[in-house]
Write a structure and sequence with these properties.
mainly alpha; two-stranded antiparallel ribbon; 2 strands
Amino acid sequence: MANQPKNSRNKLQDSNIVADNRWLILSAVFLLLLYFLLPVLTPFLTAAILAYMCDPLVDRLSVLGYKKYQFGRTTATVLVMMAIMGVITLLLLIIIPVLQKESLLIIERLPNVITNIRATAEPFLQKHFGISLAIDSAQIQEIITKNWKTAGGILGDVLKTAGTNSMALIGVVANILLLPVVLFYLLRDWDELMKGIGNLIPRHIVGKTTELAQEIDQMLAEFLRGQFTVMVMMSVFYAVGLWMTGLDMALPIGIIAGLLGFIPYLGPAIGMGLALLVGALQFTSIGQLIPVLMVFGIGQLVESNFITPKLVGDRIGLHPVVVIFALLAGGQLFGFVGVLLALPVSAAIAVGLRHTKDSYLDSDAYLK
Protein backbone atom coordinates (compact mmCIF):
# COMPACT_ATOMS: atom_id res chain seq x y z
CA MET A 1 0.00 0.00 0.00
CA ALA A 2 2.88 2.34 0.75
CA ASN A 3 4.19 2.02 -2.82
CA GLN A 4 0.84 2.77 -4.43
CA PRO A 5 1.06 6.58 -4.34
CA LYS A 6 4.63 6.44 -5.73
CA ASN A 7 3.59 4.18 -8.63
CA SER A 8 0.65 6.44 -9.34
CA ARG A 9 2.94 9.47 -9.42
CA ASN A 10 5.30 7.68 -11.83
CA LYS A 11 2.46 6.76 -14.14
CA LEU A 12 1.17 10.32 -13.98
CA GLN A 13 4.62 11.70 -14.81
CA ASP A 14 4.97 9.29 -17.75
CA SER A 15 1.58 10.30 -19.10
CA ASN A 16 2.48 13.99 -18.72
CA ILE A 17 5.73 13.46 -20.65
CA VAL A 18 3.84 11.79 -23.49
CA ALA A 19 1.16 14.48 -23.48
CA ASP A 20 3.66 17.35 -23.42
CA ASN A 21 5.65 15.86 -26.29
CA ARG A 22 2.84 14.33 -28.30
CA TRP A 23 3.44 16.54 -31.36
CA LEU A 24 7.14 15.75 -31.31
CA ILE A 25 6.38 12.03 -31.06
CA LEU A 26 3.78 12.19 -33.83
CA SER A 27 6.23 14.09 -36.04
CA ALA A 28 8.95 11.50 -35.44
CA VAL A 29 6.55 8.64 -36.23
CA PHE A 30 5.37 10.47 -39.36
CA LEU A 31 8.93 11.02 -40.61
CA LEU A 32 9.80 7.38 -39.90
CA LEU A 33 6.78 6.15 -41.87
CA LEU A 34 7.64 8.60 -44.64
CA TYR A 35 11.14 7.16 -44.88
CA PHE A 36 10.00 3.52 -45.06
CA LEU A 37 7.10 4.21 -47.42
CA LEU A 38 9.08 6.48 -49.74
CA PRO A 39 9.10 4.04 -52.72
CA VAL A 40 5.30 3.99 -52.57
CA LEU A 41 4.95 7.71 -51.84
CA THR A 42 7.28 8.90 -54.60
CA PRO A 43 4.55 9.74 -57.17
CA PHE A 44 2.39 11.31 -54.45
CA LEU A 45 5.18 13.54 -53.12
CA THR A 46 6.25 14.52 -56.63
CA ALA A 47 2.66 15.31 -57.56
CA ALA A 48 2.20 17.32 -54.36
CA ILE A 49 5.26 19.45 -55.16
CA LEU A 50 4.07 20.05 -58.73
CA ALA A 51 0.56 20.84 -57.48
CA TYR A 52 1.94 23.40 -55.03
CA MET A 53 3.94 25.06 -57.81
CA CYS A 54 1.07 25.09 -60.32
CA ASP A 55 -1.81 25.97 -57.98
CA PRO A 56 -1.52 29.78 -58.48
CA LEU A 57 -1.77 29.32 -62.25
CA VAL A 58 -4.85 27.10 -61.89
CA ASP A 59 -6.41 29.71 -59.56
CA ARG A 60 -5.97 32.40 -62.20
CA LEU A 61 -7.20 30.28 -65.11
CA SER A 62 -10.24 29.01 -63.22
CA VAL A 63 -11.81 32.50 -63.03
CA LEU A 64 -11.28 33.25 -66.72
CA GLY A 65 -14.09 32.85 -69.20
CA TYR A 66 -16.60 34.63 -71.39
CA LYS A 67 -19.59 36.46 -69.88
CA LYS A 68 -21.28 34.02 -67.46
CA TYR A 69 -19.15 31.05 -68.46
CA GLN A 70 -15.91 30.40 -66.62
CA PHE A 71 -13.30 27.73 -67.06
CA GLY A 72 -13.72 26.38 -63.56
CA ARG A 73 -11.20 24.45 -61.52
CA THR A 74 -11.38 21.21 -63.49
CA THR A 75 -10.88 22.79 -66.92
CA ALA A 76 -8.05 24.96 -65.62
CA THR A 77 -6.37 21.88 -64.14
CA VAL A 78 -6.58 20.03 -67.47
CA LEU A 79 -5.12 23.02 -69.34
CA VAL A 80 -2.21 23.36 -66.92
CA MET A 81 -1.45 19.63 -67.08
CA MET A 82 -1.54 19.74 -70.88
CA ALA A 83 0.92 22.64 -70.78
CA ILE A 84 3.25 20.68 -68.47
CA MET A 85 3.15 17.61 -70.70
CA GLY A 86 3.69 19.79 -73.76
CA VAL A 87 6.81 21.39 -72.28
CA ILE A 88 8.25 18.01 -71.24
CA THR A 89 7.52 16.53 -74.67
CA LEU A 90 9.10 19.52 -76.41
CA LEU A 91 12.27 19.23 -74.33
CA LEU A 92 12.53 15.52 -75.09
CA LEU A 93 11.97 16.13 -78.80
CA ILE A 94 14.73 18.73 -78.79
CA ILE A 95 17.31 16.96 -76.65
CA ILE A 96 17.03 13.26 -77.56
CA PRO A 97 17.34 13.48 -81.39
CA VAL A 98 20.19 15.99 -81.17
CA LEU A 99 22.04 13.86 -78.64
CA GLN A 100 21.58 10.78 -80.79
CA LYS A 101 22.83 12.53 -83.92
CA GLU A 102 25.79 14.16 -82.22
CA SER A 103 26.73 10.92 -80.44
CA LEU A 104 27.20 9.28 -83.85
CA LEU A 105 29.38 12.19 -84.98
CA ILE A 106 31.46 11.95 -81.81
CA ILE A 107 32.03 8.23 -82.36
CA GLU A 108 33.18 8.93 -85.91
CA ARG A 109 35.55 11.69 -84.80
CA LEU A 110 37.02 9.97 -81.75
CA PRO A 111 39.80 8.08 -83.64
CA ASN A 112 40.92 11.34 -85.30
CA VAL A 113 41.01 13.03 -81.91
CA ILE A 114 43.13 10.21 -80.52
CA THR A 115 45.48 10.49 -83.51
CA ASN A 116 45.85 14.26 -82.96
CA ILE A 117 46.52 13.78 -79.25
CA ARG A 118 49.12 11.14 -80.02
CA ALA A 119 50.82 13.36 -82.61
CA THR A 120 50.92 16.27 -80.17
CA ALA A 121 51.72 14.56 -76.88
CA GLU A 122 53.90 11.62 -77.92
CA PRO A 123 56.96 13.67 -79.00
CA PHE A 124 56.93 15.52 -75.68
CA LEU A 125 56.50 12.35 -73.62
CA GLN A 126 59.15 10.51 -75.67
CA LYS A 127 61.64 13.33 -75.28
CA HIS A 128 61.25 13.99 -71.55
CA PHE A 129 60.04 10.67 -70.13
CA GLY A 130 60.82 8.06 -72.76
CA ILE A 131 57.16 7.08 -72.98
CA SER A 132 55.54 6.00 -76.22
CA LEU A 133 51.77 5.99 -76.69
CA ALA A 134 50.90 2.65 -78.27
CA ILE A 135 47.44 3.65 -79.46
CA ASP A 136 45.97 2.17 -82.63
CA SER A 137 43.21 4.53 -83.77
CA ALA A 138 42.05 2.09 -86.46
CA GLN A 139 41.57 -0.64 -83.86
CA ILE A 140 39.66 1.77 -81.61
CA GLN A 141 37.43 2.71 -84.55
CA GLU A 142 36.71 -0.96 -85.17
CA ILE A 143 35.88 -1.64 -81.52
CA ILE A 144 33.56 1.37 -81.29
CA THR A 145 31.78 0.52 -84.53
CA LYS A 146 31.33 -3.09 -83.47
CA ASN A 147 29.94 -2.15 -80.06
CA TRP A 148 27.71 0.51 -81.57
CA LYS A 149 26.23 -1.98 -83.99
CA THR A 150 25.51 -4.39 -81.15
CA ALA A 151 23.64 -1.73 -79.17
CA GLY A 152 20.42 -3.51 -80.09
CA GLY A 153 21.74 -6.63 -78.38
CA ILE A 154 22.51 -4.61 -75.28
CA LEU A 155 18.98 -3.27 -75.36
CA GLY A 156 17.71 -6.83 -75.62
CA ASP A 157 19.77 -7.83 -72.58
CA VAL A 158 18.33 -4.89 -70.67
CA LEU A 159 14.80 -5.88 -71.60
CA LYS A 160 15.55 -9.51 -70.67
CA THR A 161 16.85 -8.40 -67.26
CA ALA A 162 13.77 -6.24 -66.82
CA GLY A 163 11.65 -9.27 -67.63
CA THR A 164 13.25 -11.30 -64.87
CA ASN A 165 12.53 -8.46 -62.46
CA SER A 166 9.01 -7.87 -63.69
CA MET A 167 7.67 -6.63 -60.36
CA ALA A 168 10.28 -3.87 -60.19
CA LEU A 169 9.51 -2.89 -63.77
CA ILE A 170 5.79 -2.90 -63.06
CA GLY A 171 6.41 -0.67 -60.04
CA VAL A 172 8.33 1.87 -62.10
CA VAL A 173 5.70 1.93 -64.84
CA ALA A 174 2.92 2.19 -62.25
CA ASN A 175 4.61 5.18 -60.61
CA ILE A 176 4.98 6.92 -63.97
CA LEU A 177 1.34 6.30 -64.87
CA LEU A 178 0.11 7.19 -61.39
CA LEU A 179 1.88 10.56 -61.28
CA PRO A 180 -0.43 12.47 -63.70
CA VAL A 181 -3.54 10.92 -62.10
CA VAL A 182 -2.50 12.00 -58.60
CA LEU A 183 -1.40 15.40 -59.90
CA PHE A 184 -4.81 15.99 -61.50
CA TYR A 185 -6.77 15.30 -58.31
CA LEU A 186 -4.36 17.21 -56.06
CA LEU A 187 -4.30 20.20 -58.37
CA ARG A 188 -8.06 20.25 -58.79
CA ASP A 189 -8.80 19.90 -55.06
CA TRP A 190 -5.74 21.75 -53.71
CA ASP A 191 -7.64 24.60 -52.04
CA GLU A 192 -10.09 22.22 -50.37
CA LEU A 193 -7.26 19.99 -49.15
CA MET A 194 -5.41 22.94 -47.63
CA LYS A 195 -8.62 24.10 -45.97
CA GLY A 196 -9.20 20.62 -44.53
CA ILE A 197 -5.64 20.45 -43.15
CA GLY A 198 -6.10 23.89 -41.61
CA ASN A 199 -9.25 22.74 -39.82
CA LEU A 200 -7.30 19.92 -38.14
CA ILE A 201 -4.76 22.26 -36.51
CA PRO A 202 -5.39 22.70 -32.76
CA ARG A 203 -7.11 26.02 -32.19
CA HIS A 204 -4.61 27.28 -29.62
CA ILE A 205 -1.76 27.15 -32.13
CA VAL A 206 -3.66 27.84 -35.34
CA GLY A 207 -2.65 31.52 -35.36
CA LYS A 208 1.08 30.88 -35.07
CA THR A 209 0.92 27.91 -37.46
CA THR A 210 -0.92 29.99 -40.05
CA GLU A 211 1.65 32.77 -39.70
CA LEU A 212 4.54 30.36 -40.21
CA ALA A 213 2.81 28.63 -43.14
CA GLN A 214 2.10 31.94 -44.87
CA GLU A 215 5.69 33.09 -44.40
CA ILE A 216 7.05 29.81 -45.77
CA ASP A 217 4.60 29.90 -48.67
CA GLN A 218 5.52 33.48 -49.59
CA MET A 219 9.24 32.70 -49.41
CA LEU A 220 8.98 29.57 -51.53
CA ALA A 221 6.65 31.16 -54.08
CA GLU A 222 8.99 34.09 -54.68
CA PHE A 223 12.02 31.81 -54.78
CA LEU A 224 10.47 29.31 -57.20
CA ARG A 225 9.20 31.99 -59.57
CA GLY A 226 12.56 33.75 -59.57
CA GLN A 227 14.55 30.53 -59.91
CA PHE A 228 12.41 29.30 -62.80
CA THR A 229 12.93 32.59 -64.64
CA VAL A 230 16.69 32.35 -64.05
CA MET A 231 16.75 28.77 -65.39
CA VAL A 232 14.94 29.76 -68.59
CA MET A 233 17.13 32.82 -69.17
CA MET A 234 20.36 30.91 -68.58
CA SER A 235 19.24 28.06 -70.85
CA VAL A 236 18.76 30.56 -73.66
CA PHE A 237 22.06 32.27 -72.86
CA TYR A 238 24.12 29.06 -72.79
CA ALA A 239 22.46 27.65 -75.92
CA VAL A 240 23.03 30.84 -77.94
CA GLY A 241 26.53 31.36 -76.56
CA LEU A 242 27.66 27.81 -77.29
CA TRP A 243 26.07 27.98 -80.74
CA MET A 244 28.13 31.11 -81.47
CA THR A 245 31.30 29.21 -80.52
CA GLY A 246 30.46 26.59 -83.15
CA LEU A 247 29.84 23.76 -80.70
CA ASP A 248 27.79 20.99 -82.32
CA MET A 249 25.65 20.10 -79.28
CA ALA A 250 25.02 23.71 -78.24
CA LEU A 251 21.23 23.42 -77.86
CA PRO A 252 20.96 20.33 -75.61
CA ILE A 253 24.01 21.27 -73.54
CA GLY A 254 22.69 24.82 -73.11
CA ILE A 255 19.30 23.54 -71.98
CA ILE A 256 20.87 21.04 -69.57
CA ALA A 257 23.21 23.67 -68.08
CA GLY A 258 20.35 26.12 -67.64
CA LEU A 259 17.81 23.69 -66.20
CA LEU A 260 20.36 22.32 -63.72
CA GLY A 261 20.96 25.85 -62.50
CA PHE A 262 18.77 25.21 -59.45
CA ILE A 263 21.81 23.39 -58.05
CA PRO A 264 24.26 26.24 -57.33
CA TYR A 265 27.62 25.84 -59.08
CA LEU A 266 27.13 22.10 -59.65
CA GLY A 267 24.60 22.54 -62.48
CA PRO A 268 26.74 24.92 -64.58
CA ALA A 269 29.80 22.76 -63.80
CA ILE A 270 28.04 19.71 -65.31
CA GLY A 271 27.09 21.75 -68.38
CA MET A 272 30.63 23.06 -68.77
CA GLY A 273 32.04 19.53 -68.42
CA LEU A 274 29.74 18.25 -71.19
CA ALA A 275 30.63 21.21 -73.40
CA LEU A 276 34.36 20.70 -72.92
CA LEU A 277 34.03 16.97 -73.63
CA VAL A 278 32.18 17.62 -76.88
CA GLY A 279 34.55 20.45 -77.76
CA ALA A 280 37.60 18.26 -77.18
CA LEU A 281 36.17 15.70 -79.61
CA GLN A 282 35.09 18.30 -82.15
CA PHE A 283 37.83 20.95 -82.23
CA THR A 284 41.39 20.42 -83.37
CA SER A 285 43.19 22.65 -80.84
CA ILE A 286 42.92 23.59 -77.20
CA GLY A 287 42.62 27.25 -78.16
CA GLN A 288 39.21 26.57 -79.70
CA LEU A 289 37.93 25.57 -76.25
CA ILE A 290 38.63 29.04 -74.82
CA PRO A 291 35.38 30.57 -76.22
CA VAL A 292 33.45 27.70 -74.62
CA LEU A 293 35.03 28.46 -71.25
CA MET A 294 34.31 32.17 -71.78
CA VAL A 295 30.60 31.44 -72.33
CA PHE A 296 30.31 29.67 -68.97
CA GLY A 297 32.53 32.24 -67.24
CA ILE A 298 30.44 35.17 -68.51
CA GLY A 299 27.24 33.24 -67.76
CA GLN A 300 28.24 32.64 -64.14
CA LEU A 301 29.36 36.26 -63.74
CA VAL A 302 26.11 37.66 -65.12
CA GLU A 303 23.94 35.17 -63.24
CA SER A 304 25.67 35.57 -59.87
CA ASN A 305 25.98 39.35 -59.92
CA PHE A 306 22.93 40.54 -61.85
CA ILE A 307 20.23 38.01 -62.75
CA THR A 308 19.98 35.92 -59.57
CA PRO A 309 20.24 38.90 -57.13
CA LYS A 310 17.57 40.73 -59.15
CA LEU A 311 15.09 37.87 -59.63
CA VAL A 312 15.80 35.63 -56.63
CA GLY A 313 17.96 37.55 -54.20
CA ASP A 314 18.14 36.15 -50.69
CA ARG A 315 14.45 35.24 -50.53
CA ILE A 316 15.06 31.73 -49.32
CA GLY A 317 17.44 33.00 -46.65
CA LEU A 318 19.97 30.18 -47.02
CA HIS A 319 23.67 30.37 -47.75
CA PRO A 320 24.67 28.71 -51.07
CA VAL A 321 26.76 26.14 -49.17
CA VAL A 322 23.70 25.22 -47.09
CA VAL A 323 21.64 24.91 -50.28
CA ILE A 324 24.20 22.56 -51.85
CA PHE A 325 24.36 20.45 -48.67
CA ALA A 326 20.56 20.29 -48.44
CA LEU A 327 20.25 19.15 -52.06
CA LEU A 328 22.95 16.51 -51.73
CA ALA A 329 21.60 15.28 -48.38
CA GLY A 330 18.06 15.11 -49.75
CA GLY A 331 19.25 13.16 -52.78
CA GLN A 332 21.27 10.76 -50.63
CA LEU A 333 18.39 10.06 -48.22
CA PHE A 334 15.34 10.13 -50.50
CA GLY A 335 16.62 10.11 -54.09
CA PHE A 336 15.11 12.44 -56.69
CA VAL A 337 12.16 13.29 -54.45
CA GLY A 338 14.65 14.29 -51.76
CA VAL A 339 16.20 16.79 -54.16
CA LEU A 340 12.75 18.23 -54.85
CA LEU A 341 11.92 18.42 -51.15
CA ALA A 342 15.31 19.74 -50.02
CA LEU A 343 14.67 23.44 -50.60
CA PRO A 344 11.06 23.53 -49.28
CA VAL A 345 12.09 21.65 -46.14
CA SER A 346 15.18 23.83 -45.70
CA ALA A 347 13.07 26.96 -46.11
CA ALA A 348 10.59 25.72 -43.51
CA ILE A 349 13.43 24.93 -41.10
CA ALA A 350 14.93 28.37 -41.73
CA VAL A 351 11.63 30.08 -40.94
CA GLY A 352 11.21 28.00 -37.78
CA LEU A 353 14.75 28.76 -36.62
CA ARG A 354 14.24 32.47 -37.28
CA HIS A 355 11.10 32.55 -35.13
CA THR A 356 12.84 30.47 -32.46
CA LYS A 357 15.72 32.94 -32.44
CA ASP A 358 13.33 35.88 -32.10
CA SER A 359 11.54 34.16 -29.21
CA TYR A 360 14.86 33.42 -27.52
CA LEU A 361 16.05 37.02 -27.84
CA ASP A 362 12.81 38.20 -26.18
CA SER A 363 12.91 35.56 -23.43
CA ASP A 364 14.01 35.96 -19.84
CA ALA A 365 16.73 33.37 -20.38
CA TYR A 366 18.49 35.80 -22.75
CA LEU A 367 17.59 39.15 -21.19
CA LYS A 368 18.47 38.28 -17.59
